[in-house]
Amino acid sequence: MSTPPLLDTALTLATRTVPVLPLRAGKVPFGNCPDCAANACGGRPNMKAAGTCRCPGVCHAWAAATTDPHILTSPAWASAWRRAAAVAYHPGGAGVTVVDLDDAAAVDWARATLPATRTVTTTRGEHWIYRGTMPSSNAVRPGVDIKSTMAYARWRGPGTGSTVALPDAVRALAVKEPSTARRAPQMATVPLRAGQGECPHRTTAYLDRGISMAVQRITEARSAVHATVYRTFLAVLSTHGRCGCLTDVHTARLFTAAQAKGESARHCTDAWTNALTTLGL
Question: How far apart are CA 65 and CA 61, in angstroms?
Fold first, then answer.
């Protein structure tokens, strides 16, 4: 009997230490086995990494992902491969983070905000793949999910470009504002407290476009405005805050956009200060 084509792909990825699993139609994993249905097994137990599932079949989604060819080709997995619609992999287990950009607007935002890296074309957008892992998080901004630990992503090919290190700008997207932050004095702007080293940005257009995208993100927020403002400030500072290229003019644009959405000057100052503190600036 010939090997199913998707299994061939899975075995090739496994030799490259990429943990894989089959997906059924709709990009969803195969259901849990009867013993684990409705989480009756309690998570079997506390799964935190790929390959920790000990069920004989394809169970527990990303936790079942494996690089073991004996498991991938076992009789218990054979039926799943025959019915599979796609191959998925566990990014965290492969040592990478996937920024899942679900539409053209999200892709435009990434091109203006994030460092270029290996890119994979998807049905509606792109996957940007960075070297390094972090907690996964959905809907960190419109059209953007982060898939790394405790998550799976559909394999769509190796992509193009070189994989670069996971930047602070991506980590910042998943960070929530501290709930007990020290209040700062109310003011329109606050000092950056950033270094004045050599600016790594080639032109001021890169910074200007990044600020414009940040203002757009705040303006388009339909809910959780305060959280959106904080995450946006964090992303801007993680990209531009260390070289000293941000000015009061840039900060004022961000604060003005936030206040137009109902944030007070004090809330803006607090969010900015919290972002500085989180990044150690």
Answer: 7
Report d(CA 78, CA 83) in Å as an integer. 9
pLDDT digit string (tens) for 225-281? 888 898 899 888 888 887 778 888 888 899 999 999 888 888 888 888 888 888 777
Angle at which helix 265-279 crosses helix 248-260, to 10 degrees, equals: 130
Tokens of 224: 């959780």
State how far Cα 147 lies from the chain centre.
5
Query: Would you give the DSSP letter of residue 178?
Result: P
Q: In the chain, which stretches have pLDDT less than 50? A: 180-189, 191, 193-196
Q: Which of 79, 91, 130 is nearest to 59 (CA)?
A: 79
Query: In this structure, what are the phi and psi dihedrals at residue 5, rounded to the nearest 5 degrees?
Result: -55, -40
| 137-161 confidence digits (pLDDT tens) | 988 888 999 999 999 999 999 999 9
Give the CA diameter of the chain: 73
Amino acid type, 12: T
Write down the pTM of the prediction: 0.71
Question: CB–CB of 65/14 below 8 Å?
Answer: no
CA–CA distance, 184 with 54 (Å, rounded to integer):
51
